[in-house]
Amino acid sequence: MVPDDDPVEPGGIPPADVSIDERLVRGLLRSQHPDLAGLPVRHAATGWDNVTYRLGRQLAVRLPRISGAAPLILLEHAWLPWLAGHLPVAVPVPLREGTPGPGFPWSWSVVAWTPGRTADREPLDAAQAGVLGRFLACLHRPPPPGFPRNDWRGIPLASLSETIEPKLAALTDTGAGLSLPAESVRDQWRDAVRAAADAAETCIHGDLHPRNLVVSQGRLRAVLDWGDMTAGDPAADLAAAWLLFPVAAQPAFWSAYGQVSANTMTRARGWAVFFGTTLLTTGLAGDPALAMIGRRTLERACGRPPASREPGAPA
């Protein structure tokens, strides 16, 4: 399941560890799924971890392009069929699974093709804030035995300080193009690090930035790229409120999601600072669109001090 879009190759991504082209994709299909090998194949998108080729009109082939992504696609094979049954928005359940073959050392997937564009290219309508809130309320359920864990998502924010503090220190009003003092970003991060972890672990997506959501006519159609799914702090996903919606649209998100403590809200803002800072600094290295996502996220999350609120009150 990938968006119906022109080929996308964002800047700043790491070089591929293996060469992938149409001939390779067709060869893998011919050897493992010969009934699909006659369909037209064309490059559709290149991301940080994976490359996608459209297959006919209704399918796509998704292959890891770096070694670090190879185990992540196995997590999707194992867990997306289970998750999909609990979620009100489509996710890329593998329709066919591929194994290593000539010229390609890792597992891969055949998924459905979703018409639409990623949310960085076609923003979600503000009215979709409630849709995403309900989606996360359904996703954030107790993790079953064996559910994935990783060291980068849903963990205590203090664990990420060594990674994020140098990036925060490098932010300046002029160099990063922020419309607010960089000190406000650092203050919000430090408040979040101090906020108590008062929410039970749940299943989380772990990487809900605009390039991982498919939008059509302003509506949320699918949530992609589940390689970072993990059991962890749901606040990591709740940061999506600031990544995806202006502040004025967020009350519908929180109302649809349900009760959230003040501490969880503060940690969610902290995760928005983490994602926003990471996207901004990565984008400044060669991807202006990514930098804009990060900049906008920080301005939404840190533009005013977080207000104290009762559990369940909107942000």
Question: Care to describe what's here?
Answer:
This protein is of the alpha+beta class and 315 residues long. The protein has two domains: 22-114, Phosphorylase Kinase, domain 1, CATH 3.30.200.20; 126-302, Alpha-Beta Complex (Aminoglycoside 3'-phosphotransferase, Chain: A, domain 2). Helices cover 36% and strands 14% of the residues. It contains ten helices and ten strands. The strands form three sheets. The protein has a five-stranded antiparallel sheet with strand order 1-2-3-5-4, with helices on both faces. The chain has a three-stranded antiparallel sheet with strand order 6-8-9, with no helix packed on it. The protein has a two-stranded antiparallel ribbon with strand order 7-10. A hairpin with a 2-residue loop joins β8 (213-216) and β9 (219-223). It starts with 21 loop residues before the first helix and ends in a 13-residue tail after the last helix.
